[in-house]
Structure to design on (960 residues):
């Protein structure tokens, strides 16, 4: 039997981000989402004859901020181009974009190199009128130009990702970074963050790239991961059966899990790019760079590093907190509320339990749990005044109705039993008496046999006793 | 009285209104009557009767009527750019330059016919019929601003606006025996001008004399926030006063006067006579070199169609203008609409431009043409180190007969041999009538460095006085 070739997936992403400016990229119409169709339009964004584009200064500012956040070189002079193709969502018959001289050159975010970032305008939205809402069975299509002309930053990575999960995780970091710098809502469901993936396979160890396919517009993090996974499987099957991957643009349907071809390489558009003669080159001077730099907050990757260095968090925990801004913010708020007594590691350990209870996408700041309450709870666990099991119960109650942990523990009688004056020694003695066989095994050196005895004590104390203290008492009473 | 009124230049008429000697309503009615009885097909639309309050008497232009080339957007007034695809189109806004002239007191008399989308040198490429030359209605008025030139020369309007991309103001001015100024690229806003070739299009005046040219131009210039390629003119435009050319150095470019330009003997004779006059006025006349100028036409017929192919993509039948519905998909609607809406010359240039920008041909055509353009601009810079102005005949011939060159596009393109180099270099040039050849006007072109309009107008004014050209027979013309 011949060993099957192991393939390594090679993935690059192209991400379109709608910028959160007040007005459109080349006119002064307001940005909108979900408004009545065609109310945010003007002669410019409708492409009426004689109109000319005027670059949105804030969009340029955001473009520079993105570049700086991704460690990119900022081009002192970049150029807009016309990308020509006919479609009803493109009122001028061309999209103003950037081509050979984008505003941001090479950079890096996390483990992935950034190829470039450029500015462009969004197309309008086609609505297919008919029962299914899909283009093929539509009676007719209508155009809503509200979205047309919305500023976009297109971020293109190098092919540095090697699994669907890596792609998803990196995109999460990108989203957090963009959200942290405040340039976009970065909401995939609403379309303010859109992602295409270029996928190819190569034999493990090889350094040459295989033929790639482009997977278009996956509109959630989950679908991105599913789509890329499905495409990797499809290509693997093709290659294993001796066939070739053909270069084409694909669509992943999350409902059926199927991948269909949108167009082949032969059908690819010739966009006939040429420099946009209606705009002068985009010059970024030192003052613009400085202004963008001054507005950058601490970036998620820097924050993760600080959590590691300053608070001693393990790398993964630090990233989990820092790569979701709202978690990092809640964590730091809890530390601040806890004051000098707060133990950063103990507090950090309680964030995942909180997330589990409020839902993985929810912002803890909008839950009923105050940062102070979480810090207090973590402090009480660390001080052994409540044990882990009971504390989890307390957290559930905090999520349900808010408040402070201390009165809840008091009211529910969940406080840890004090070893000295709670009669814990008597309960331990009773446990040994009830299970002489276990006691015998322990004396014989089998420490695993403490399990049943600890379980007995926990039952008797309704889980409020401290496990380590029970073990200590067992050993003491058995004279070990 | 009307014959006297008809003889007033626009500047003289404005002065008479301000002095209380002339009622602008009377002037307007005189011209309105003549324009409405237009036998030259110079107008595509004539204003309805105006009310007494419609005239801004206390303004620099004092209500004097103005003809406006069809491609300038005028709110609520038909703006068709000579094309069937825009038949009946009424824009919702007014071009900046027109708005500025209205603010300065000009009154809109009518919209003037032109070659379709300004593509042509004879006004025969007009969806609404050819325009006739008032000097001889069997001949063309030149193009593409032929309607404006014919209307001014025929006494149908005191002055008019045109646009010049490769000679579209200067050549019709020459053919009709009037003054045409193509200003420095960027000195007048292009906002609201239906674009032909964005990097070349410039608005400019067509007038009976140089003073009118300076007066109209002085109210057109200025940077416009709506046009990123517009520039602040470095000085105020003054009315010309020079009576001699003492100390002025005039260069005659050998490359444009050779056999390639195909200059008619009668045109050459008038040109030589004008050079002699210039010497008498105190100028020194020397040969100068523009080594790359003979390639200007080739570069122009790549760059202009390339830009046009994108500029005209918006005429797709989706939002405004002509739409030819029928069976089939979106692409067939596009094809039907554009096949029916565009004339043959427009289609030819769209095809040329699309080809020149195609993948694999871009650098060979568009790239090379841009490099030639840079060299031509450098040639002018070098030449202007030694001379103040460069002069040529405006066009190689006088007005030719209708249909004479329709079947031969290349012969038609050669009309612009002497005007296109200045367009590519973005520098100002003016055409003034230098006399008659076989009863038809001949144009004399003076070009200067960027922003030299004041000096250029002064030199043209001094020459104009010395030439003493009498355009008045034409104003009797066919519109008698």
């Amino acid at each position: 039997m011949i060993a099957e070739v192991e393939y390594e997936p090679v993935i690059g992403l192209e991400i379109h981000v709608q910028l959160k400016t007040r007005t459109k990229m080349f006119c002064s119409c307001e940005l909108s989402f979900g408004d009545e169709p065609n109310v945010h339009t003007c002669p410019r964004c409708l492409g009426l004859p004689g109109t000319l584009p005027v670059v949105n200064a804030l969009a340029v500012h955001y473009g520079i901020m993105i570049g700086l956040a991704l460690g990119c070189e900022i081009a002192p002079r970049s150029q807009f181009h016309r990308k020509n193709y006919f479609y009803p969502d493109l009122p001028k018959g061309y999209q103003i974009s950037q081509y050979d001289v984008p505003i941001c050159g090479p950079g890096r975010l996390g483990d992935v190199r950034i190829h470039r970032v450029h500015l462009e305008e969004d197309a309008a939205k086609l609505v297919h009128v008919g029962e299914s809402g899909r283009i093929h069975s539509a009676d007719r299509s209508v155009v809503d130009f509200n979205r047309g002309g919305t500023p976009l930053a297109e971020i293109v990575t190098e092919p540095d990702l090697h699994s669907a999960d890596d792609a998803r995780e990196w995109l999460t970091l990108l989203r957090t970074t963009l959200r942290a710098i405040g340039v976009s809502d970065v909401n995939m469901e609403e379309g303010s963050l859109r992602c295409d993936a270029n996928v190819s396979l190569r034999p493990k160890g090889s350094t040459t790239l295989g033929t790639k396919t482009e997977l278009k517009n996956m509109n959630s993090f989950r679908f991105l991961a599913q789509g890329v996974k499905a495409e990797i499987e499809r290509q693997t099957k093709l290659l294993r059966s001796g066939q070739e991957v053909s270069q084409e643009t694909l669509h992943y349907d999350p409902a059926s899990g199927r991948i269909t071809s949108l167009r082949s390489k032969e059908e690819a558009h010739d966009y006939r790019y040429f420099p946009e003669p209606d705009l002068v080159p985009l010059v970024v001077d030192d003052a613009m760079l400085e202004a963008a730099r001054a507005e950058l907050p601490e970036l998620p990757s820097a924050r993760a590093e600080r959590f590691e260095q300053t608070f001693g968090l393990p790398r993964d925990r630090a990233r989990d907190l820092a790569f979701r801004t709202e978690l990092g913010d809640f964590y730091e708020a809890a530390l601040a509320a806890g004051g000098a007594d707060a133990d950063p590691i103990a507090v950090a350990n309680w964030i995942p339990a909180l997330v589990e209870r409020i839902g993985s996408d929810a912002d803890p700041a909008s839950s009923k749990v105050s940062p102070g309450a979480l810090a207090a709870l973590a402090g009480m666990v660390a001080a052994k005044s409540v044990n882990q099991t009971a504390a989890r119960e307390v957290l559930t109650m905090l999520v349900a109705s808010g408040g402070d942990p201390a009165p809840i523990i008091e009211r529910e009688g969940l406080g840890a039993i004090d070893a000295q004056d709670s009669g814990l020694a008597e309960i331990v003695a009773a446990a040994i008496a009830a299970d002489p066989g276990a006691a015998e095994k322990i004396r014989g050196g089998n420490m695993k046999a403490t399990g049943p005895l600890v379980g007995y004590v926990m039952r008797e104390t309704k889980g409020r006793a401290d496990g380590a203290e029970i073990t200590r008492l067992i050993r003491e009473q058995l004279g070990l | 009285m009307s014959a006297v009124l008809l003889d007033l230049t626009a500047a003289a008429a404005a002065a008479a209104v301000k002095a209380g000697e002339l009622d602008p309503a009377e002037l307007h009615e005189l011209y309105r009557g003549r324009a409405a009885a237009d036998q030259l097909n110079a107008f595509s639309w004539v204003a309805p009767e105006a009310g007494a309050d419609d005239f801004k008497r206390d303004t620099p232009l004092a209500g004097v009527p103005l003809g406006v080339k069809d491609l300038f957007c005028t709110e609520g007034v038909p703006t068709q750019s000579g094309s069937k695809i825009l038949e009946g189109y009424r824009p919702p806004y007014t071009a900046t330059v027109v708005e500025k002239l209205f603010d300065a007191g000009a009154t809109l008399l009518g919209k003037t016919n032109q070659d379709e989308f300004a593509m042509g040198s004879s006004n025969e490429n007009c969806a609404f019929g050819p325009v006739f030359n008032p000097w001889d209605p069997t001949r063309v008025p030149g193009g593409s601003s032929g309607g404006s030139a014919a209307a001014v020369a025929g006494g149908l309007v005191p002055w008019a606006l045109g646009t010049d991309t490769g000679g579209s103001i200067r050549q019709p001015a020459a053919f009709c025996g009037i003054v045409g100024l193509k200003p420095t690229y960027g000195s007048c806003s292009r906002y609201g001008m239906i674009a032909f070739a964005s990097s070349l299009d410039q608005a400019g005046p067509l007038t009976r004399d140089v003073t009118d040219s300076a007066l109209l131009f002085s109210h057109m210039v200025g940077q416009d926030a709506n046009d990123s390629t517009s520039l602040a003119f470095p000085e105020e435009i003054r009315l010309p006063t020079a009576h001699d050319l003492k100390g002025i150095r005039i260069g005659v470019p050998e490359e444009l006067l050779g056999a390639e330009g195909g200059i008619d003997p009668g045109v050459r004779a008038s040109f030589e006579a004008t050079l002699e006059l210039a010497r008498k006025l105190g100028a020194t006349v020397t040969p100068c070199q523009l080594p790359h100028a003979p390639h200007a036409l080739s570069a122009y017929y790549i760059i202009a169609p390339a830009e046009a192919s994108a500029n005209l993509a918006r005429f797709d039948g989706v939002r405004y203008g002509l739409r030819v519905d029928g069976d089939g998909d979106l692409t067939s609607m596009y094809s039907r609409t554009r096949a029916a809406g565009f004339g043959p010359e427009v289609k030819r240039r769209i095809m040329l431009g699309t080809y020149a920008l195609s993948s694999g041909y871009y650098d060979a055509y568009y790239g090379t043409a841009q490099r030639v353009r840079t060299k031509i601009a450098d040639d002018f810079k070098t030449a202007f180190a030694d001379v103040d102005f460069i002069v040529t005949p405006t066009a190689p011939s006088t007005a030719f007969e209708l249909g004479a060159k329709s079947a031969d596009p290349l012969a038609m393109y050669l009309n612009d041999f002497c005007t296109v180099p200045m367009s590519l270099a973005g520098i100002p040039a003016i055409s003034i009538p230098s006399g008659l050849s076989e009863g038809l006007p001949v144009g004399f072109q003076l070009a200067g460095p960027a922003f030299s309009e004041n000096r250029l107008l002064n030199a043209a004014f001094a020459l104009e006085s010395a030439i003493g050209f009498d355009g008045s027979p034409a104003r009797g013309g066919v519109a008698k």
